Amino acid sequence: MCKIPTKGLLAVNGVLWTAIGTKILVTGVASYMRLGAAGETVASNGTAALGWIVPLSLLVFAGFYWMFTGVVGKYSARILAMPEARTSVFKTFSLKGYLIIAFMIGLGITLKHIPGIPTSFFAWFYCGLGPGLLSAGIRFLIRWWRERRSQPPHTIPPKPDKTDDGN
């Protein structure tokens, strides 16, 4: 089993959340770019739904930023309270966390395959969710960096003298 320094789980979280946030943001931007091609309109004069995407994305981002702030704090405290010096990389999340992730992935896949959900939904929702996850990842990495820098340098205990017989 892959064991890493326990505080390194903060970095693992940071990399995972940053990568996922970036992927979702790119998907949202791609949906945003397809809006004109999809012909989605909201006004009688034919203007695209672009006027609503930025405010809705900001609203979604604010909600997820607030929510993920609590998650970052909770998971960071959980990781920093672990007594082991080295631990499995799979302890990054609790069982409940893994179940929530599986549910969210399943929900995302399901939504992508439901006909009739407009491209504009993916544009504004993913352009809010992606930066929320990305910011959480960055906060995990900052927390890891601060913890890493606050630790005293690792010292190797001296080897016992071979001539000493223990008396």
Compact overview of the structure:
The chain is mostly helical and 167 residues long.
Description:
This protein is mainly α. It has one domain (3-150). 68% of the residues lie in helices and 4% in strands. The chain is built from four helices and two strands; from the N terminus they run βααβαα. It has helices at residues 8-38, 50-80, 95-113, 119-150, and strands at 3-5, 86-88. The chain has a two-stranded antiparallel ribbon with strand order 1-2. Helix 1 (8-38) runs antiparallel to helix 2 (50-80), helix 1 (8-38) runs antiparallel to helix 4 and helix 2 (50-80) packs parallel to helix 4 (119-150). The radius of gyration is 23 Å and the shape is elongated. The relative contact order is 0.24.
Question: Features of this protein?
Answer:
single chain; mainly alpha; 68% helix
Strand arrangement, major sheet? 1-2
Structural class: mainly alpha
User: How helix-rich are the residues, as a percent range?
Assistant: 55-70%
**Biggest sheet overview:** 2 strands, antiparallel
Count all strands and give the number. Answer: 2
Strand content: under 5%
Total number of distinct structural domains:
1
Rg, nearest Å: 23 Å
Task: Give, in order, the helices and strands.
Answer: EHHEHH
Rough outline: elongated
Low-pLDDT stretches are 41-47
- How many helices in DSSP terms? 4
Distance between the first and last residues' Cα: 40 Å
